[in-house]
Amino acid sequence: MNMPFYVPPEQMMRDRADFAQKGIARGRSLVTIECADGIVLCAENPSRNLRKISEIYDRIAFAGVGKYNEYDQLRIAGIRAADLRGYTYSRDDVDAQTLANQYAQMMSQVFTHDVKPMEVEILVASVGATGADDRMFHIRYDGSVTDEDGFAALGGDAERIREALDGVDTSSMALSEALKLAVEALSGEEPLTADQLEVGFLDRGGEGRCYRRLDNDEIAELLQ
Question: Residue 137: beta bridge partners?
Fold first, then answer.
């Protein structure tokens, strides 16, 4: 009887992490910025159908990078979890941190026990009445959670984007200023145009459902 090869757990985890990171790096990046008007979520995405950014619940948005079918499954799971909690208890009981913890448990389970890890990074953002009440949680492929403040960058160019935004105070910026900053950070050498972008916005002044998607005309107008 042939004995299976022994692989040290440390090596197995490193291999899984490398696999996930390579898959994520192949995709286009995404950035979110907190501003005076709310939270801007901006991604390089020329597709009009395969969305990276979407609404989860009243004041909560979702963003994902990496393998589309995997982060879309997570998006759907988050919507169902939020709807169930809001129906069972109260709409006010649905919060970003609870969703982020649920996502972290799911992704950690897959990373540890499944044949391959998820090739995704996701972000859960919620807008509050003031900037101090905003929440952004960045969940990585292994289930680790980071509480982001001011801005968050996901994807292969995340490090370059973080360097571009580090130290910039966005708390008093209007939507147009924050969007211009996000696009500049995403663009690199070649400036991105409205038809290459996907933009979602959590409106701080909104009541009930605060999320809206910006169309190409509105993006182009804000970038002028």
Answer: 124, 147
* Plot region of 150 (φ>0 → left; ψ -120 to 50 → alpha; else → beta): left
How far is 53 from 68, CA to CA, in rounded Å?
A: 11
Check if the beta carbon of residue 164 is closer than 8 Å to that of residue 184. Answer: yes
Residues 135-194: pLDDT tens digits? 999 999 999 999 999 999 999 899 999 999 999 999 999 999 999 999 999 997 788 999
**Contact predicate 100/137, CB 8 Å:** yes
Helix (H), strand (E), coil (C) string for 59-82: CEEEEEEECHHHHHHHHHHHHHHH
User: In this structure, which amino acid lies at residue 4?
Assistant: P
User: Phi and psi dihedrals of 73, rounded to 5?
Assistant: -60, -40
Residue 57, strand partner residues:
60
123 touches 139 (CB < 8 A): yes
- Contact 149/101 with Cβ under 8 angstroms? no
Q: Are 81 and 99 in contact (CB under 8 A)?
A: yes
CB 141 within 8 Å of CB 120: yes
Domains of the chain from N-terminus onward? 25-223 (3.60.20.10)
Q: CA-CA distance, 116 to 128, in Å (whole number)?
A: 37
Residue 132 is encoded by which pair of tokens? 């101090």
CA distance 178 to 220: 14
Query: What's the token pair of residue 164?
Result: 């571009």
